[in-house]
Backbone:
């Protein structure tokens, strides 16, 4: 079910901020792989937790590899960037180069996935913090491998009842490769209200 409190206007505004952040991330990513990287963000949705889980199951059935970072400041939450197994392998091999890699992520590949995810998530939230003029601090990235239910564990995240999930799909286009990932932001209801306050303040400057 789509969120009633996080309206389409808020989604559009936040999506524009994510777009700017993704642009910054694409530049850094291009430097890592020494080639042009195109990164697209088609849309952002705000849905309740159960709806998000159903959506994620459809997008990435089976196991996923997710990098999680907790961020806090004027508002707080858990940010995720996750990929299915195939996209994860293609992504890290683009960074590490050709080699005798296995069919699963080894220690070196896991570190590479955390590194690029850290760049992408920090670019996104750094842009949001800059534009909204509010400080946000993030934790060290953590890699979680397993099913969607393992990644999005409410008890582990400690985000209270009725959390809201802001989710957007994105695609990396590299030479001869297309890697699809999902950025998701899970926030408690009180934190969402603080984010809305900041978005309203920002939006009022341009009306």
Residues:
């Amino acid at each position: 079910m789509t969120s009633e409190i996080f309206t389409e206007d808020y989604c559009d505004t936040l999506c524009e901020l994510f777009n700017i952040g993704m642009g910054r991330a694409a530049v850094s990513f291009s430097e890592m792989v020494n080639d042009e990287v195109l990164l697209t963000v088609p849309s952002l949705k705000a849905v309740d937790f159960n709806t998000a889980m159903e959506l994620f199951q459809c997008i990435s059935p089976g196991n996923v590899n997710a990098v999680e970072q907790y961020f806090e400041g004027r508002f707080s939450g858990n940010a995720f960037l996750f990929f299915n197994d195939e996209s994860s392998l293609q992504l890290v091999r683009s960074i590490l180069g050709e080699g005798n890699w296995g069919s699963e992520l080894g220690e070196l590949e896991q570190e590479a996935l955390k590194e690029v995810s850290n760049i992408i998530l920090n670019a996104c939230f750094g842009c949001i913090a800059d534009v909204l003029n509010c400080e946000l601090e993030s934790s060290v990235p953590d890699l979680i491998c397993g099913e969607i239910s393992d990644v999005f564990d409410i008890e582990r995240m400690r985000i209270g009842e009725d959390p809201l999930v802001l989710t957007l799909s994105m695609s990396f286009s590299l030479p001869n490769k297309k890697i699809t990932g999902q950025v998701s932001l899970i926030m408690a209801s009180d934190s969402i209200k603080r984010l809305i306050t900041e978005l309203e303040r920002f939006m009022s400057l341009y009306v």
About this structure: Helices lie at 8-33, 49-59, 85-96, 107-132, 148-151, 154-157, 189-204.
